[in-house]
Amino acid sequence: MSVTAESASSLRLGPAEGSAGGGLPATTAHSRTYPWAVRARACIGIAILVPFGAVAFFTEPWWAGDSWRELSWEILAWSLLIGGTVIRFWATAYIGGHKGKTLVCEGPYSLCRNPLYFGTFLITLSIPAFLHSLIFAIGVAAASSVYLWTTVRAEEVVLRQRLGEEYAEYCRRVPRFWPKLWGIRTSPRIEVDVRSLRIEAFRALRWALIPLVVHLALDIQDLVG
Description:
Elements: H1 28-31, H2 36-39, H3 41-57, H4 67-95, H5 115-131, H6 134-163, H7 165-173, H8 194-207, H9 210-224
């Protein structure tokens, strides 16, 4: 068992729900030692996202009115939202209670090193899918990629220092973000932290609001248009 980049919760740098509980040192003095891209990652992501969002809000997709394409977007959106939520619950069942303590390399952590981040990424992509906006999807993917890349890379530096060759070997064996589709490793039984699952359930309640908020935004877009 071992720690992943997203599990170093005892080393936080500010709020890190985007990093799914991963973290960097919380003190200002420590945070100043990180590259500016790490410290400004949220601002960079927003700067990327805003122009894409503006364009998407004031334009209609070229397939508007095509019921089959719109249905395809809805199916994709729900698949991303539900799939991302399931992946996060699955990862939480394995990592809960072990964050910052041991390296977890079974279950979803045997397929990729950051399944919590991957689940969050899918949930985030469901937003432009509900909006039926390819333009906004490109912006969300770009902003998320910048945020996750800078965060994970910084966390990995910390974990390599803490865990040494054990973590290095894990990195050589398991991909950082995109899950491999083979070689899953799991134990017959796992120890589940109920508190971690409860926290994840409250997060899932927030994600359940995504379709409602998006459809409200579409109604406003129709009024403005």
